[in-house]
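Protocol step 4 of 5: obtain the predicted structure for the target chain.
Materials: sequence only (see below). No template structures provided, no constraints applied. The aim of this step is simply to have a reference model before the mutagenesis design in step 5. Sequence pasted as it appears in the construct record:
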Amino acid sequence: MSDCQEASREGGIPLIFSILKLYGILRYALDDGVVFAMTLQERIIADMKDAMRAHDELRVSVLRMLIAAVKNKEIAERGRGKSGELSDDEVLAVFKTEVKKRRDGAEGFRVGGRSESAEKEDAERLMIELYLPAELSDEEIKKLVQPLAEGRGADEFGRVMGAAMKAVAGRANGDRIGAIVKKMLGGVKT
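Step 4 output (structure tokens):
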């Protein structure tokens, strides 16, 4: 008999005691179907501990960097009068910033002829992207942007782009959204 079954038999918390791996996130399921998920910060710390046990130096380094970036953001927010931990959405925004830094850094290293450093930046970026939600496809973006762009001309690019960014809500790169909006508006006058 497993520890989980034994705890349940002894009148412990009514947990199914199964830990499910859904989308790489540890989730704990209750008998009544309610699912509790770890916060993103808790997940990063747990993953860092696992990486330390596995002696995965690159992963530990990236996760430590993410934890530090989140802590720095919390400190900056405290200066603005906000206290407590960041929400998962705010943590995701920090991760997206880190992905952009890695993407830009890799490009700079490639231009400078330092392919080894570029590969390291790419590996770090890919590792961080594992914690981000999947981006929308171009077709999904077009479906969201189409009603916003109908009946508008190229001179209204800024308005359509602003509304499109709100509609997509961080689920796609702004460059991709901009290209789709430009195409739907028939090009933008410069």
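Step 4 remarks: Confidence is low (pLDDT under 50) at residues 1-32. The chain has three domains: 3-37, 40-129, 138-185.
Proceed to step 5.
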